[in-house]
Fold this sequence. Notes:
disordered N terminus, alpha/beta, 50% helix, five-stranded parallel sheet, single chain
Amino acid sequence: MESEARSHPGRQPLLFFGLPGSGKSHCAKLAEEELGYEFHEGDHWLPEDLKANLARGQGFDDEQRLRFANEVADKMASARSHPEARPLAVSQAVFQRRCRDAIRAKHPDVVFVWVRADTPSRQARLAKGGNLVDKALGQKMKNDFEEPAEDELHVLLTLDNHRVDHSTEIAHHELRNQLRQVAHAASRLHARQHAAMQN
């Protein structure tokens, strides 16, 4: 599927954000597998002090969140600088509007994809383990999440439990279709952004 992204060299980077356990990484990986994007797990870019917070069952303060947002933006710039780089699909929670805006300031063409899932689905995924955030911390962090306001440009991707279940081919097919719709919506959104900047 790599050729699909390479045939669209101007395709915008996608940043999948949302609460822990919503399915951000799964969606970003599928964007790589099915649409030819280049997947990056934002948690791999976490500084050591933020990793230590999570290990202690703590979230981040405002300074840490903004510092990490700028780190994510810098890592994205590095990844995009390679001559053979494909469009990026990055997974990272990015809880606050000001943090998303900090990334937008360095990547005006980035399209934020809000991955939203119901609470039982998120908690079930976190309970399985394999995530830096456990179920208890995920519940506490929910209170810190700032949903995008009406004036914040983004694309919404809603997942319920069956759509993130890897065991069903029907669910996988539905999610692939949703991701294709997200990619098309991202292109339209970027065109609107570009037109607004010209006026």
